[in-house]
Amino acid sequence: xxxxxxxxxxxxxxxxxxxxxxxxxxxGNGWPCSVEFTDDPHPRNNYWEMWGLPxxxxxxxxxxxxxxxxxxxxxxxxxxxxxxxxxxxxQTTALSFIVQRPDEEPGFRLDREESSxxxxxxxxxxxxxDRPAGQRYV
Amino acid sequence: MxxxxxxxxxxxxxxxDGGDGPPQGGGDGPAGDGAEPLPEDxxxxxxxxxxxxxxxxxxxxxDAELVGLAAVKTRIRQIAALLLIDRxxxxxxxxxxxPNLHMCFTGSPGTGKTTVAxxxxxxxxxxxxxxxxxxxxxxxxxxxxxxxxxxxxxxxEVLKRAMGGVLFIDEAYYLYRAENERDYGQESIEILLQMMxxxxxDLVVVLAGYKDRMDSFFASNPGMSSRIAHHIDFxxxxxxxxxxxxxxxxxxxxxxxxxxxxxxxxxxxxxxREQPRFANARSVRNALERARLxxxxxxxxxxxxxxxxxxxxxxxxxxxxxxxxx
Lengths: 138, 326
Ligand SMILES: Nc1ncnc2c1ncn2[C@@H]1O[C@H](COP(=O)(O)OP(=O)(O)OP(=O)(O)O)[C@@H](O)[C@H]1O
Ligand SMILES: [Mg+2]
Fold this sequence. Notes:
The structure holds 2 protein chains of 2 kinds. Chain A is built from 2 helices and 6 strands, in the order αββαββββ. By secondary structure, chain A is of the alpha+beta class. In chain A, the strands form 2 sheets. A 4-stranded antiparallel β-sheet of chain A has the order 2-1-3-4. In chain A, strands 5-6 form a two-stranded antiparallel ribbon. By secondary structure, chain B is of the alpha/beta class. Chain B has 14 helices and 7 strands. In chain B, α2 (55-65) runs antiparallel to α3, α2 (55-65) packs antiparallel against α4 (113-126) and α6 packs parallel to α7. The longest helix of chain B has 23 residues, at 280-302. The model of chain B is unreliable at 1-32 (pLDDT under 50). Residues 66-69, 107, 109-115, 170, 245, 248, 279, 281-282, 285 of chain B line the site of adenosine-5'-triphosphate (ATP).
């Protein structure tokens, strides 16, 4: 099941050329970029691991693409996303999208739990979480 | 509709780059804008191509702004010619390996190395070799860290800032300390070497410094030497060139030498050269700054009325009271 999240979630994954065009737009706005990765696809997993610090004072997209590629090399089958932070007026993430995903995305299972008074609680369980971190996508 | 057509925000407000850089990815050489190659028997008008590239604007500024430096200017012209021809070759579908443009500028202080590097960045941008053409000037302290694990991120940070432009490393030999094999500079050199090779199309590295020290730096770092295609020497200026540089600086600043001052200024330059810490064109600039100070004090001390003539003319005494004449 294909995970969707972020700015371009319903588009096909970007090529490096398309990613570069987005980075150029981001840098043109003066937003610092950062790269993050994870192997936990749960939608509530907001805080992914940081690949280094956010990148300030860059002028050229190649520099950001370089870090994306370094992260891809270190984590060839993790999810990787690119974030752009608007430190100006909005003070929030201006743009965020996935730049790499695992080949196989097994998806989620819906768990039902019966609690008091016949109430039912639902829980999303990513199948990959059955395996330990680091061995989830191989 | 492809994903590319639907790019979100990039639609309404194009980035300030305007997309005039070379295409990304694959590093398939300058100006391969994906157009059909020209037919086998086509010809292109060189003069027109040259005019459209606006290289001559930069080359003319280089000529007009910098006195002397004939060998340096020739080399820069050669590089401009090569890049221009490469662009044409690409239009014909001929293979073009982007040339290696990492350089080493050697020469005494104040011989124009930084200035030329700035012009070079601009030129390479015009010719589509560099996407942005900015200059990031650094020294050892900007690259090398203070503790284990500090150097690599620091060096990479600088390299990333320089991407799309020129990284100018002043006194690059301080990166290597022969007497301390555990010096963090070595780590910085290794990252530089790697990036100079792998990100060749994203940035141009210029090393600068004194000739003799640079030579011994290269002797102990053969990897660095072999990645540098252009070694350009900036000779010390002759007395005539220094005087011409002085004239140019004065003109820009709106001053002139009085008739008797011309010879005094030449004497000043000749004597200054013999003194310690002589820095070619920079010494000229400093001398003129001090002459302006004396000129201003002299006018104020004199009182009375002054006109354009007095406000712009430097007199012999504005130079003669310098320590150089002691
Ligand atoms: N040929 C020249 N004609 C006119 N001005 C010059 C020339 N060469 C240098 N200058 C001027 O001299 C000053 C010093 O030049 P620059 O900073 O480029 O020297 P540098 O070689 O980088 O010196 P350092 O090795 O000390 O860094 C600048 O203000 C520059 O404009
Ligand atoms: Mg300099």
